[in-house]
């Protein structure tokens, strides 16, 4: 289990593939698992690793509050897909001492059990409530590249790699804007209380090698 050495292209590729259909390392919210993996990466992944870059930019926005994120920070090798060698661990006593800072296995098990009970209780409370109407909106976005040499297929792949609870991507097309340049026009449906246009703009424009700007072309309540 693990991502391997996240200081190498091989480790980042494993992380990128792992995040292709996930927003976070574990669960549905930022946690200490994301902090542990984020801290192991020396700098932002390249735009080639678009899933890893999307995740990296999102977790970076939590740096001022990372100490308060839920969960218990575990050794890096305990996160990620199975069957990947963890080359980041050493046998030195100093590393063993650092590991002790995160608490014993018993403490980790107790914390994991407590989180499990909280999630079960929250789920039960949610199920007990009467169904409420979920407000949704249909949004049409204009995503503009830098020039006519921008790889529009890669640009669209980066945009669609953005995954959030309450976000569903729809159809897209390329629309000429002049001088041989085309913009990506892509639709999506969002749950209003979970996803906003500011969030979409922040994550889309983070792919700065491809995206010059993003505008909202149409916004309709549904």
TrEMBL record:
Keywords: Elongation factor, Protein biosynthesis. It comes from Oncorhynchus kisutch. GO terms for cellular component: cytosol; eukaryotic translation elongation factor 1 complex. Residues 93-110 have a biased composition (Acidic residues). Pfam families: EF-1_beta_acid, EF1_GNE. This is Elongation factor 1-beta. InterPro entries: eEF-1beta-like_sf, EF-1_beta_acid_region_euk, EF1B_bsu/dsu, EF1B_bsu/dsu_GNE, Glutathione-S-Trfase_C_sf, Transl_elong_EF1B/ribsomal_bS6, Transl_elong_EF1B_B/D_CS. Residues 101-127 form the Elongation factor 1 beta central acidic region eukaryote domain. Belongs to the EF-1-beta/EF-1-delta family. Catalytic subunit of the guanine nucleotide exchange factor (GEF) (eEF1B subcomplex) of the eukaryotic elongation factor 1 complex (eEF1). Stimulates the exchange of GDP for GTP on elongation factor 1A (eEF1A), probably by displacing GDP from the nucleotide binding pocket in eEF1A. EF-1 is composed of 4 subunits: alpha, beta (alpha subunit of the eEF1B subcomplex), delta (beta subunit of the eEF1B subcomplex), and gamma (gamma subunit of the eEF1B subcomplex). Interacts with elongation factor EEF1A1. GO terms for molecular function: guanyl-nucleotide exchange factor activity; translation elongation factor activity. Residues 67-110 are annotated as: Disordered. Residues 136-222 form the Translation elongation factor EF1B beta/delta subunit guanine nucleotide exchange domain. The gene is EEF1B2. It comes from the Eukaryota.
């Amino acid at each position: 289990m693990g991502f391997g050495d996240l200081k190498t292209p091989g480790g980042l590729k494993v992380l990128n593939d792992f995040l292709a259909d996930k927003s976070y390392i574990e669960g549905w919210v930022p946690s200490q698992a994301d902090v542990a993996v984020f801290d192991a990466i020396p700098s932002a992944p390249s735009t080639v690793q678009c899933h890893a870059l999307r995740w990296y930019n999102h977790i970076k926005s939590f740096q001022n509050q990372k100490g308060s994120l839920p969960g218990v920070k575990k050794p890096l090798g305990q996160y990620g897909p199975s069957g990947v060698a963890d080359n980041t661990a050493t046998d030195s006593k100093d590393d063993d001492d650092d590991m002790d800072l995160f608490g014993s296995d018993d403490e980790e098990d107790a914390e994991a059990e407590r989180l499990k009970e909280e999630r079960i209780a929250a789920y039960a409370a949610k199920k007990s409530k009467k169904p409420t109407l979920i407000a949704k909106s249909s949004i049409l976005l204009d995503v503009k590249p830098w020039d006519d040499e921008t790889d529009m297929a890669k640009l669209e792949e980066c945009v669609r790699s953005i995954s959030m609870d309450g976000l569903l991507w729809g159809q897209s097309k390329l629309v000429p804007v002049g001088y041989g340049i085309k913009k990506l026009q892509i639709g999506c449906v969002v749950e209003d209380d979970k996803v906003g246009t500011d969030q979409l703009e922040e994550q889309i424009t983070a792919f700065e090698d491809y995206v010059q700007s993003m505008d909202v072309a149409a916004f309709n309540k549904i």
